[in-house]
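Before a computer can learn anything about folding, someone has to put a protein's shape into writing. The outcome of that step, for a single protein, is printed below:
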Amino acid sequence: MNRVLLLLLGLCLAQANIGQDRPVSVYDQDHDYVYRYEGDIKSGIPQTSDRFSGMKIQADVRLQFRTEQDVFMRLEKISLKTLLGELDSPEEKKMQMMKTSPEEVVPDQMYQDSFKQDHLDMAEDWWMTRWLHKESSEETQDSEMKSSESGERSEKSFSREVPEEDMRELLKHIEKVIKFRYEEGDVKDIEARKDEPQWSVNFKRGILHLLQLTMDPRKSDIMDRDDDVTPNMSYDKFATERIYRVMEDDVTGRCETLYNIRDNRVQKNIREIIKTKDYRNCEERSEHAQAIQSGFIPQEQGEEPKELLESSVQTRAYVMMDRNVHDKFMVKSVESRGQHVFQPYSDKGGDVITFAKQSLKLQESADRTEELPEPEPAERKGGLMFVFGTRDQPRDRDWDSYMRMGDQQKQELTQMKKEKFMNLVEELRSLHQDQLETIITEEITSPQEKQQDWRQQNARKVLLDALSLVGKKEALKVIQQLMEQDKVTDDESAQMLTGISLSIQPCPESVSNMMDLVKSRRSQSSPQVRQSAWLSLGTMLHGLLSERREGQLKRHLPENSEMIMQLRRLYSQELLTCLDDAQSDDEKLMCLKAMGNAGLEDTVDRLHDVITGKESDVTPLELRVEAIRALWRVAERLPHKTLNILYPVFNNPERDPEERTAAFDVIMASNPPLSVLEMIAQSTQRETSNQVGQYVYTCLKKLSESELPKDARMKRDCTIALRLAKPFNKGIQYSQSRRFQAIDRDMQMGAALDINTVADRSSVWPRYASAKLGLHAMGYHMDVMETGVRVEGLQAMVDSLFGKDRDEKKSVFDYLKRKSQQRHRTESTWNSRKSLHDIEMEKIQQKLPVETRRHSEPQGHVYMKWFGNEIRFDQLNQQDMQQLIDQGRWPITDKEEQLRHGMDTHVTKATKLVEASRQIPTQLGLPITLDMNSALLMTSDVNTKLKVNPGIFREDRDNQEVKGVDCEVKGNQELALQFVGKMSVDCYVIQSGVELNAVMTTQFPLSGKMSLDLENKKHKLTIETPEKERELFVWRSEPFVFTEESRSRPNADGIEREDKIFKKMSIQGRKTQKWPNMFHTSFGREELGLEFSLDSRMVSRQNHEKTCPLHPLTGPMELRLACKPGMHAPTQIDFELQQTEDTVRHLSPLERLVFTEEKERRNERRMEVTVVAQHPQHPRTMKIKLNTYEEVCFCFRVFPIYHLLNPLVIMLMVFNRTVVHLSSPCTKIRRVLKWGEGSRDLPQTLKA
C-alpha cells in the first residue's frame, strides 16, 4: 500500500514539473494573431434622459509578426451599426418601485448607474423589440428620419446595420494594411500607403493604442521617484503588484498614466494591468479649435482653467507573460472605457456625456499561412498621436440640379430662411474654387442690371452674405474676381471684405490676396472699398500672427523661423508705408486703425513717434489719440514698453484730457501689477484736471466692483489702489467710466456693458463716447462689440440747431438756463450792480491779451468693433457740418422731397453671430467635435411719408415757425436667430451625438399716423391694430440625440449621389420632471380690446425652479409673447393731446395780470389726453388730464438777530429732484415731494 502511495505522489510531482516547464505563449515571429475588436460610442444627457445615440464598429484584427518587432495589421470582416434608443436599466426599475410620490426626484446615484455602459451592451433584440412594440404615440412622434432623396419621415427609430454598399468608401481605405514597430509594448513608426487618408490611419491608431503597454517603467519617463537616485519599492520586478506613473503616448496625446500591475490570482502566468490617464497633466495633447470670433479663458493665479471638454479613460488588460522575462508577452484581452463630458454651466444638471468603449479579445494564434502585402507606396505616418487632417468632401450633386433650374425655381430656393442659411454656407464651403466661381458668377449679375422684384434683390443679398462667411481662400479669390468685374457695388464690396476677414482662417496666401486688393484699381478709386480693405488686412494679420486663434504663421511654417521673420517685417512695412504715403489726415486715420487691428510689435516705434515724437506738436489731436489706441493689442504682449510710452502722456497735465484718458485705457488693457495701479491712484491726489481725475477714479471703482471672472485679480488690486485715490464725483458733465453688469453664477454666464465718456470744458456735450459689450460664457470671455463716436465742434452745431447767431459768444448752456434766468429777474438785477472792485477787474482784463474761446473746427467719426476688430468707421462730412453751422441746415433737399411723396426702405441682412468648433480625439481614434453655430436674419420693410409745413429748415420757410408736421409710417420688422450646439462623433459614414436647436423670432409691425399741429397745440397719434394674432416674440429650444448616415447611390442617369439619413429622438427631460412647468398670463382682452398673452414651458433642472431660467439642456423650452384681437377689438387707436388754457373772463384786469405772471413764473401747463379705441358698435374713450408746473424755493440765511434777513438766494430748484411750494416770502415752507430716498421736513430754523 505504501508503494502505491509513493508511486502516486511521484506521478503528481512529475506532472507538476511538466506544467512548470511548459512555455508561456508570447508574440513570436512568423505567427498570425487574430483578435476580435468591438468599439462603440454612445452620447446623451444621462441626468435628464436615458435616450442615447451612437455607433458600433466590429472587425477582426489580424496581426502578423514578420520579426519580433516588425508587425503588419489588417482589418477583416468589418461591420458598422447605428445606435439610437432608450435605456431601461435594472437599477432604474428598482428605483421606480421604491418611489413614494411622483414628485420625488431621482437621486444622483441613479444618474450614475442608468447610463452605465454595462446596460448599453444588452442584446440588440431586447431594445429593438421594445421600440417595435412601444404603445405610446408621443414617444414615437419625436423620432424623425429625414432623407434628402425621398423626404419621408419615420415614426420609429432604432439601430440599423449599415449595408456594405454604403460603406464602400470606408472599406476602401480601412481594409488597407499598415506596418508598425512593436518594441516591449511600445507602438511606434507607423507606415501606411501614401493614398490612405488620415481619418483611416487615426482609426487604426485607436486600435493599436490598446496594445500600448509600458511593462518596464525604468525605460520610460518615470514620475514616481522619491529622489534622483533610488527608485521606489514599487519598481521591484519580482513584486506581485506594482504601481507607478509614467508619461506615455497614445492616440489622445502624451499624458501622465498611472499603472497598476498585479499577478492574476486564478490563472497562472497572467498579469492584470490597469492604467488610468490624467489629462490634466499632459506634455502634448492632440486637439483642434477654430472660430470666427476670438476669446480667451481667464486664468486666475493658482487655479487651473476649467476645460470645456473633460475626458477620462481607463484601460484594463490581461497579458500572458513569463515573470522572469519582461520583454516577452502576449495580450490576451484588453478593454478601454472613457468618458468625455461637456459641462456648459453648473455642476448640477445638463451635462452632455459621450461614452466610448472598445475591446480586443484574442481569437486564435497560428503559424503564418498568408503573407500580408506591404503598404506601397509607403509613407511614414508617425506615432500613435491623433493627426487632424482635412477630409476630402465630394462635390455636392445638389448644385448640379440647382444650376439646371429655372429662374423662378432658383428664386424660391435662394429665399433662405433662418434654418437654411447655415446650410447654404456649408454647401458653399464644400465646393472647389472652380465650382464656386461658376455658381457665384452666374447668380450675381452687374449692379447696373437692377432687379425689379425686391425678392430677387434679397436673393442676391443673402448669397453675397453667405459667400463672405465661407471662410476659405477660394472665397476670397471669388470676391476679388467679382470686384474686378464690377459686379458688386462699393457697399457690397466693403461688407464682403469685412465678412471674409472675420470668417477666414488666414494663411500667407490669403493675406497676399488681401494686400493685392488694397492696391487694386477698385480700392484706389473708392475710398469706402479702400478703407474696408485696409481694416480687413489688419484683421487678417492679427489672425495670422496671434497666438489665440487658429491659423498662426508658425503652423504654416513650423520649421522655417527665418521665413516667419521676413513675413513679419514685410507685413509691418506695408502698414508703415500706408502711414507714410498718406496724403490727408483721413488716410492717416485709416492706416492707424489698420495698425490697431494688426497689433504688430514692429509698428510700436512708429506709433511712439506719432504720440510723443517730433511730429506730435503738429499732429492733430485725433491722430494722436488714435495712435495711442492702436497700442491696445500690443499692450498685453509688451507691457513694460507700453507703460514707458504712455505713462508720461498720462502724467503730463499739459496734454489734452482725451489723450490722457486714452493712455490710461491702454495701460489698463496691459493688466498692470498692483504697483502700477497704486502709482496711478496716487497721481489723482495732485490731479488738476477734473476730467482726467473723475475718469480714472470711476474706472478704478468700476473694476473694484466687477463680477466678471477675467477681472478677479484686477478687482482685488483696484480695491487696494482706491485707498490711495482721491474721490471725484463732479457730475455727469465730466468724463467717467461706468459699467452695467449681470452675472449668473449658477449658469456661469454673464454680460457687462461699459460706457465711457470723455468731456470737454468748452462744451456741455462729450467729445468722445463709447459703449463696449463683453460676454462671459462657457469659460471664455469675449469682447463682442464696441461702438463709439468722436466729434469736435459739436457745441457750434448744437448752437446752430437752436437758431443762435454765430457771432454771439455764448454757449448752448445759456439756452438750457433761459427759463431759470427769467424766473430770477430780481436776482439778475441785484447782480447787475457792479462794485468798484468789479469795475477795476474788468479794466485789468481788457488790458490782458485774453481772447474768447473759439469753437474747434467741426470733425469726427463713428466706429464699430466686432470681437476686438474695427470693421468700419464713418467720418462725418466736414463740409456738411460746416454748412450746418453756417446756415442751420443739412444738405438733404432731395430726401425731403422723397419723404413728401413716400420713401420705401427695404433692408435684408444675413450673418453668423457665432461659429466655433473644438475637436479632441477619443480612444477609438474617432474625433469628438463640439460645434456652436448661429445665424441671424433681419428684414425691415418701411414706407415713410413726412410733410413739414412750411418746411424742415429755416431757409426753406423764410425763418418762419413750423406750423405742422404730418408723418405716416407703414412697415414690418422681423428678426430671426437660430442657434445650434452639437456634440458629435464622426466615423466618415456615421455621425452621432447630442444637438440643441434653439430658434428666436421677433416681429414688430408698425403702422400708424402722427399729426402735430404746433399752431393750435393739438397733436394726434393713430395706431392701427392687428386683425389677427401675431407672435411678437418666440423662443423655442429642443435638445435631442441623433444619428446621421451618409450613403451614395446611383441615380437614374448612373451618377453617384450622396444622401443622408437623419434620425433623432427628442430629450423630454422626464427623468427630472414627469411634466414640464407651464406658465400663462394675459392682459387687455376686455380693457383694451387687444389681448397680450405670455406663455412659457420649461423643464426644471432640479425640479424646484418654477420660473423660466435658461436651462436648455434639461428639456424643451418655449417662451411666447403674442398679441391678438380681444373683445370688441378696435380697428385703430387714436391718442389726442390738447394743451388747454384756463378761463380768465370772470377775473378783473388786475387779477388777470397777477394770474398770468404767476402762471409764467410757475411755468404751468395744462394738457388733456384723449384715448379713443375706434369700434363701430363699442367705442372706448379715456381722458387723462395733466397739470405740470415748476416752483422755486427761496431759502434765507438766518442770523441771530431774526429781523435781519439776507435776500441772497442760496438754493435754486434742482431739476427732477424736488418741487417746493411758496405761499409768501416769509411764510412756512414745506417739502411736498421726496428728496432722494426719504422724505422729511425742512429744518426748524427755516420755518420761522
